[in-house]
Amino acid sequence: MGRREIREEVFKLVFRVEFNSKEEMEEQVALFFTDMDADEEPKQISEKDEAYIKNKFDKLMELKESIDKEIEEKAKGWTIGRMGKVELAIIRLAVYEIRYDDDIPTSVAINEAVELAKKFGQDDSPSFVNGVLAKFAK
User: Fold this and answer.
1) Residue 74's CB: how many other CB atoms inside 10 A?
2) What is the rounded distance in angstroms from the CA atom of residue 42 to the CA atom of residue 133?
3) Given 3-state DSSP classes, what are the helix, strand and coil percentages for the chain, each rounded to the nearest 5?
4) Positive/negative CA dihedral, 37, 89, 60, 127
5) 3-state SS of 48-110?
6) Which domains does the chain have, with CATH numbers?
7) Segment 56-79, tens digit of pLDDT
8) Quick one: how many helices (H) and strands (E) in the chain?
């Protein structure tokens, strides 16, 4: 899998957080890797990629509270509760990459977040995500 595909899989896991309790997430992560893809085929994720995805997700979840606090500070006029769940998951992932993943340049994290917003969000999602994340680039 390429980095973009891996990031998309991490996003899908982060998105599930909004619909499941903390206690349920362990089972959700296990189910995630046994789910079928859009063509009803088993997901083809190597052990190495699966380990990377789980590790990145776990690290992000450990920092979720502080990431959410930073998002609310930067997104003037918006609270976590008012944001769309897709946009929030994308922004959380991007903020994690900007703040805590030294392997990913800020511009790449923002660009990839905008691409995820184009694919999974609504029409105005890319500009919203870009606007919020631009405040993290400063």
Assistant:
1) 17
2) 34
3) 75, 0, 25
4) positive
5) HHHHHHHHHHHHHHHCHHHHHHHHHHHCCCCCHHHCCHHHHHHHHHHHHHHHHCCCCCHHHHH
6) 3-137 (1.10.940.10)
7) 999 999 999 999 999 999 998 899
8) 7, 0
Q: 68: which residues sit within 8 A by CB, 6+ positions away?
A: 80, 92
Whether 126 and 118 have beta carbons less than 8 Å apart is answered as yes
**Cα–Cα nearest to 116, from 89, 81, 83:** 89
In whole angstroms, what is the distance from residue 87 CA to residue 116 CA?
9
Q: What are phi and psi of 123, to 5 degrees?
A: -55, -40
To the question of pTM greater than 0.70 for the whole model, the response is yes
81 to 68, 85, 87: CA distances (angstroms): 10, 9, 11
**pLDDT tens digits along 4-27:** 999 999 999 999 988 988 888 888
Using alpha carbons, list the distances in angstroms from residue 92 to 12, 47, 74, 98. 12, 25, 12, 10
Tokens representing 89 are 């998951």
